[in-house]
Amino acid sequence: MIMDRNTIPKWVEKATFRKLNRKWLDYSSQIARRIMSEIIHDKDNSQKKLAEALEVSPQMVSKIIKGQENLTLKSIAKISDVLGIELITFPKYRYMESTLPKNVLLKFNVTLDFVQFKVMDSEDLLNLANNLAHHTGGNSVYIKNDVKNEKIYA
Amino acid sequence: MNFLTTFENEDSLWSVCFDEHDGQDILNYLFDLWDDVEHLTEFFESNLVDLEEPYWQGISIDTAITLVQQERQFLEDKLLCVYYKYAGCDNVKFEDLFSKLHKNEYALKESGKKFWKIKLDTMPQILRLYAVELEDCHIIVSGAIKISKTMDRAHFLPVFAKLQQVQDFLNQEFIISKDGLIE
Fold it and tell me: Measuring CA to CA, how many Å separate B19 from each of A47, A121, B24, B148?
């Protein structure tokens, strides 16, 4: 039975490290969870494949799935390719927003070309509405059929 | 069997060092385990039936992992505060840090402000420490992720075994206070 009053406990060293590196360790944990969800039912084989693809040791792969590794973007991309899943996504940001002011009403009048016209069924109209919505940056779009007095929303 | 003080120059909280964990103190072992995504994923996959109980409001495995890691972070931060004697953490006693739930079972005492970043205010605490109480100190012997109301799950067996092992040792050596731990 030994009592040691002078050694700094190991937990202090590790807890301090985790506290100082919290942000990237959180990222590492999120990536590890997604990797584990893909490989959990065939872990040994999958770990070998990952080690080969990343050209690293099995011990390194073990650290990765524990959420303790500071991965490079290149490594994340390789793991993503091996597993066939996206490991990281990016939040929307302002350059993704439409350049059109949000409150502009766009009204398209569709006229029939006597030479060339197409009878559009409801599925065609829905596809057209969806395409218009996409091109207008997600603004609310509907196609109004005056004959049937109905609106088809994207 | 070895014992290690948790705080430098302060003897109210100790950890056992078991050979099966390569001699590292149990507190360090538990913190590593509760940070290990591989372990946590496999644990919750194996105990999914307990997560599905209304008690946990159908939380996902991902949320459960986050609960464990955040509660562990908070526990580490609290203990670091005491260890480094930051403002507000002077003369903190074991009872100030932990609530006794049952014999040998303790949970981190919640502060007025919930420590989870995810807003699950009705979620119960998920981590437990198991300690033996002497006259003037506590010895942490084990810990567990508690997702069932009862302790009849297989993963509690090592907890009971360790508690018994340490209690037997203390009885054999007639140790009733921290003086008995000091060589």
Answer: 29, 75, 8, 29
| CB distance B178 to B134 below 8 Å | yes
- Chain A residue numbers with beta carbons less than 8 Å from the beta carbon of B39 are 66
Find, in chain B, the residue whose alpha carbon is nearest to that of A28: B37
A8: chain B residues, CB-CB within 8 Å: 8
**The three-state (H, E, C) secondary structure of B70-118, written as one string:** HHHHHHHHHHHHHHCCCCCCCCCCHHHHEEEEECCEEEECCCCCCCCCC
Chain A residues within 8 angstroms (CB to CB) of chain B: 1-5, 7-12, 14-16, 18-19, 22, 29, 32-33, 36-37, 40, 62, 65-68
Q: In the 8-state DSSP scheme, what is residue B25?
A: B
Which three-class secondary structure state does DSSP give residue A99?
Answer: coil
pTM: 0.79
**Do the Cβ atoms of B73 and A22 come closer than 8 Å?**
yes
Answer whether B38 sits within 8 Å of A32, measured CB to CB: yes
A105-119, B9-23, B58-72, B127-141: least confidently modelled range: A105-119
Lowest mean pLDDT among A104-108, B90-94, B128-132, B138-142: A104-108
Question: Model ipTM?
Answer: 0.88
Q: Which of A105, A57, A53, A115 is nearest to A78 (CA)?
A: A53
Give chain B's radius of gyration (CA, Å).
17
